[in-house]
């Protein structure tokens, strides 16, 4: 009962002599400290908001402009060309405003207007500079003089010490490609997948669309591109993610793993304590906007809008469409362990709980032997099943009383934490260890992750960790950015004691975590069980294979003078052809964050050039030199397509938006219907690595991430995520539907062999060059020897 008494700030009793108040100094102290922390946070956010609002200028530059204008006035100069006098005449006449005061106030107002105009001019100039993308199409390692000049100008206009959101107002809008370019590139992309008659029919349908319907639809897109910040992103979030009525578990959510080789501690509570504290530190900097914005080449800024909804965010189910709910200033966490939900306060005395204090709290949860309440064990499976039953159950059973209170606690929590009772992680001696690790992070037991939260942190009983992330609010690079920061903070800043505990002292004054209360009737429990069965069938159907490719990595590929991404994509095409005996429509995710509110674009990796290379690899009539030439041609084509996608000249987002407009206008388009119904039987994505460069992999080679993955997009296809780690490691995460003829293990082996076979092409060339050099050296020696003999004679 001590905690209950501490929770009361004051008590009073009524007696015949009056009312006696009993104040609790400890509680009042915490209230005072919490208030101080809150006001300090608001002050910092206000300051950073001003810094971001006037960027690339600074507040001090306003004072400089005011002083310059005032100095010119006292020197009897008028830089305003009469505008200061006009402003002075517009000021109200007052006894408190002398003629001199009116002049000073008019000069300050003019200086402020001039200063703000200069800021807008700087932003516009930077936006124009950032609209240039010629640099991305230049050969790797070579930079023209015009690009060097452009980079110098961008650096000059980018200001100093930018905050996370400083560049948002200067980013260009995503351009709308021309209809001719999009349809031409689309037809080129499907040419290797269709026979002659199919292609001719598609060509006819495409040209009819371009002539009849496309011009009208394109006008609406042009209008939206000028009115909205981004003509794609809001529709992409709504129609691709939020309107989907099938389970988001496996179909939409993705996962990220811990470091591949390292576990800093095997104590579950200690690992959770450090990681949660690191997340709180990251969130504090995020709320203040103090993270350094990401920049390509260290110069070109990336859009930071997706970071805003990382914490305190949940996807709320609806009958027709879901919505994303984002809250601010939430100070609690919800923890799931063995079927029980616990609410944990993250602040004490106006500060974050320390790692040792968090470890203490998590150990309380682990030591709790209470049983789940009726319906509580599998409650989270509602978020794993179909969306409509979950939306109806939420309205009927969770709209009032303790159920609403507990559900609000989950949905408004900073994030969701699962203290898992299983042990997972990569073990070189267990071939299936990565596969089980991936399946656990992606779907777990179908009821021990809250799949609607922006992300669920999973801490296993052996100390390994991972993340399951909901996809609608952001893409994988955003989670990757956070994850790199958290792992570096956990390993190198916070650390552990020799016994594996968090560093710091135990605080005996902390109140323990509280159980969330539920009153779940039998009818609701039946809905929960039904959702669980649907989710379990989906989870059982998914097969995973994790492939740790250590034979070579980015370092050797670059020595071959080719793009690592293009190398891997061509290996995937070769592996898929060997697996299926045919080519398929291939999806590779590319980012468009060089534009405001940009998210992703599709690179169609199966091209005429890539299919020609693959067929040559399988045809013994081709020589190694011919295969290598076809490889270089296909790699160059892939790189060019990737660059087009990054610069807003992709195919699929444009066609997607045209399709949405056609539906809104009730226009039936056979061309768009066919394009949007084509299945992606090979869906691929590269997980970004070392965005922050917080860890020197050369110095700490074991501190490398294992990457992450996602479920297959098509029932009869593969999902492949890969991460290029340092110079000598690549990991692949392969998924498929086990009920079909695919086999992720077989496909993983095909990928490994394809990588080695392509590497062999370069090895043969190197050997040929070596033999050629030796042969020339041998001829030179013979020539010298022969010449010496003739001289002797």
Automatic annotation (TrEMBL):
It comes from the Eukaryota. It catalyses: (R)-carnitine + hexadecanoyl-CoA = O-hexadecanoyl-(R)-carnitine + CoA. The keyword Acetylation does not apply. It is a multi-pass membrane protein. It is an enzyme of class 2 (transferase). Residues 1-47 form the Carnitine O-palmitoyltransferase N-terminal domain. GO terms for molecular function: carnitine O-palmitoyltransferase activity. Its EC number is 2.3.1.21. One of its GO terms (cellular component) is mitochondrial outer membrane. Coiled coil: none annotated. Keywords: Acyltransferase, Fatty acid metabolism, Lipid metabolism, Membrane, Mitochondrion, Mitochondrion outer membrane, Transferase, Transmembrane, Transmembrane helix, Transport. It holds the Pfam family CPT_N. Pathway: Lipid metabolism; fatty acid beta-oxidation. One of its GO terms (biological process) is fatty acid beta-oxidation. The active site is at 471 (proton acceptor). Residues 174-753 form the Choline/carnitine acyltransferase domain. Catalyzes the transfer of the acyl group of long-chain fatty acid-CoA conjugates onto carnitine, an essential step for the mitochondrial uptake of long-chain fatty acids and their subsequent beta-oxidation in the mitochondrion. This is Carnitine O-palmitoyltransferase 1, muscle isoform. It comes from Electrophorus electricus (Electric eel).
């Amino acid at each position: 009962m001590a905690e209950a008494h501490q929770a009361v700030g004051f008590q009073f009793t009524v007696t015949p002599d009056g009312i006696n108040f009993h104040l609790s100094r400890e509680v009042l102290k915490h209230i005072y400290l919490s208030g101080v922390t809150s006001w300090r946070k608001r002050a910092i956010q206000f300051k950073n908001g001003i810094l971001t609002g006037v960027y690339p200028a600074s507040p001090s530059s306003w004072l400089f402009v005011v002083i310059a204008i005032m100095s010119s006035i006292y020197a009897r100069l008028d830089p305003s060309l009469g505008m200061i006098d006009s402003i002075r005449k517009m000021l109200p006449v007052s006894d408190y405003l002398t003629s001199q005061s009116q002049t000073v106030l008019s000069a300050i107002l003019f200086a402020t207007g001039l200063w703000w105009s200069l800021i807008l001019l700087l932003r516009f100039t930077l936006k124009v500079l950032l609209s240039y993308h010629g640099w991305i199409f230049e050969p790797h390692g070579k930079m023209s003089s015009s690009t060097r000049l452009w980079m110098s100008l961008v650096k000059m206009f980018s200001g100093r010490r930018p905050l996370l959101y400083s560049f948002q107002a200067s980013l260009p809008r995503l351009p709308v490609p021309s209809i001719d370019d999009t349809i031409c590139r689309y037809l080129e992309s499907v040419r290797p997948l269709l026979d002659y008659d199919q292609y001719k029919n598609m060509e006819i349908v495409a040209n009819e669309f371009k002539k009849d319907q496309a011009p009208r639809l394109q006008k609406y897109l042009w209008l939206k591109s000028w009115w909205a910040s981004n003509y794609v992103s809001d529709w992409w979030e709504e129609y691709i993610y939020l309107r989907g009525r099938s389970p988001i578990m496996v179909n939409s959510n993705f996962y990220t793993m811990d470091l591949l080789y390292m576990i800093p501690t095997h104590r579950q509570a200690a690992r959770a304590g450090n990681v949660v504290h690191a997340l709180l530190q990251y969130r504090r900097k995020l709320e203040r906007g103090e993270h350094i914005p990401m920049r390509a080449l260290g110069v070109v800024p990336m859009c930071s809008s997706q970071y805003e909804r990382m914490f305190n965010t949940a996807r709320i189910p609806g009958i027709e469409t879901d919505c994303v709910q984002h809250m601010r200033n939430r100070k609690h966490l919800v923890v799931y362990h063995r079927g029980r939900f616990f609410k944990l306060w993250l602040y004490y005395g106006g500060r974050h709980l320390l790692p040792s204090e968090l470890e203490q709290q998590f150990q309380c949860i682990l030591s709790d032997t209470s049983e789940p309440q009726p319906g509580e064990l599998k409650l989270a499976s509602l978020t794993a099943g179909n969306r409509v039953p979950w939306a109806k159950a939420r309205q009927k059973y969770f709209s009032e009383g303790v159920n609403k209170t507990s559900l609000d606690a989950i949905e408004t929590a900073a994030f969701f934490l699962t203290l898992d009772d299983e042990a997972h992680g990569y073990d070189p001696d267990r071939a299936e260890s990565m596969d089980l690790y991936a399946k656990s992070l992606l779907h777990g037991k179908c009821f021990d992750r809250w799949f609607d939260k922006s992300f669920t942190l999973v801490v296993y009983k052996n100390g390994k960790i991972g993340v399951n992330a909901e996809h609608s609010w952001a893409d994988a690079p955003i989670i990757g950015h956070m994850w790199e920061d958290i792992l570096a903070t956990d390993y190198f800043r916070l650390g552990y004691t020799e016994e594996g505990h968090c560093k710091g002292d135990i605080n005996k004054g902390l109140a323990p975590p509280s159980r969330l209360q539920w009153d779940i009737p039998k009818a609701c429990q039946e809905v929960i069980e039904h959702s669980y069965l649907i989710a379990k069938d989906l989870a059982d159907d998914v097969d995973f294979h994790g492939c740790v490719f250590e034979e070579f990595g980015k370092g050797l590929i670059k020595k071959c003078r080719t793009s690592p991404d293009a190398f891997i994509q061509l290996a995937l095409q070769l592996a898929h052809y060997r697996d299926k005996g045919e080519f398929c429509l291939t999806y590779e995710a590319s980012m468009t964050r060089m534009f405001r509110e940009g998210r992703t674009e599709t690179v169609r990796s199966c091209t005429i050039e890539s299919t020609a290379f693959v067929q040559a690899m399988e045809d013994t009539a081709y020589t190694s030199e011919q295969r290598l030439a076809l490889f270089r041609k296909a790699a160059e084509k892939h790189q060019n397509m990737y660059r087009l996608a990054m610069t807003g000249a992709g195919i699929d987002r444009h066609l997607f938006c045209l399709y949405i407009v056609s539906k809104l206008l009730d226009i039936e388009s056979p061309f768009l219907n066919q394009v949007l119904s084509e299945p992606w039987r090979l869906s691929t994505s590269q997980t970004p690595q070392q965005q922050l460069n917080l860890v020197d992999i050369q110095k700490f080679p074991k501190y490398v991430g294992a990457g992450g993955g996602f479920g297959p997009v098509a029932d009869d296809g593969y999902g492949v995520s890969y991460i290029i780690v340092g110079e000598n490691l690549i990991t692949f995460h392969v998924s498929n539907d086990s009920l079909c003829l695919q086999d992720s293990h077989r496909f993983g082996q095909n990928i490994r062999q394809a990588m080695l076979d392509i590497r062999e092409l370069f090895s043969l060339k190197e050997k040929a060059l070596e033999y050629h050099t030796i042969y020339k050296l041998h001829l030179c020696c013979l020539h010298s020897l022969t010449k010496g003999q003739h001289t002797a004679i």
